[in-house]
Amino acid sequence: MRTSQIAVQLWSVNDQVKDATALAASVKKLKAIGYAAVELFGFPVPEAETVKICAGEGMKICGSHESGANIVNDTQKVIDRCGKLGLKAAGYPFPHQLPQDEAGAKVLRRRARPGR
């Protein structure tokens, strides 16, 4: 694996990315220690500003974990956010409602992946 394929999950420094100034400082430090890309999560910095900060440091945004509830219940919001970040997909980190049986798991899968 090439080092250019290694990304850092920003959740691992979530207490240090609470606003745009903190995000910029953290991305700069992460770039300096050798990371080439970041994986986002739902922190409060607007998408356009996040893209600008990452691009300014030469960091690629390779993915984003999104709220399970948003993915299932507000899919368009997640699609729009991914579009603003230049992403084709979002990570579904965990179910917001745990299925109680196989039938429930199938319902959750259909809701999370409409049309499939």
Q: What report would you give on this structure?
A:
By secondary structure, the protein is mainly α. It has one domain (3-112). Helices cover 44% and strands 10% of the residues. Strands 1-2-3 form a three-stranded parallel β-sheet, with helices on one face. Helix 2 links the parallel strand 2 (37-40) and strand 3 (60-64). Helix 1 runs parallel beside helix 2.
Brief characterization of the structure:
The chain has 116 residues and is mainly alpha-helical. It has helices at residues 20-32, 47-56, 68-73, 75-85, 102-112; strands at 7-9, 37-40, 60-64.
Strand order of the largest sheet: 1-2-3
Largest sheet: 3 strands, parallel
Total count of domains: 1
Proportion in β-strands:
5-15%
How many helical stretches? Answer: 5
The secondary structure category is mainly alpha
Topology:
Blueprint: E1 7-9, H1 20-32, E2 37-40, H2 47-56, E3 60-64, H3 68-73, H4 75-85, H5 102-112
Parallel strand pairs: 1-2, 2-3
Helix pairs in contact: 1-2
Keywords:
single chain, 116 residues, mainly alpha, three-stranded parallel beta sheet, 3 strands, 10% strand, elongated
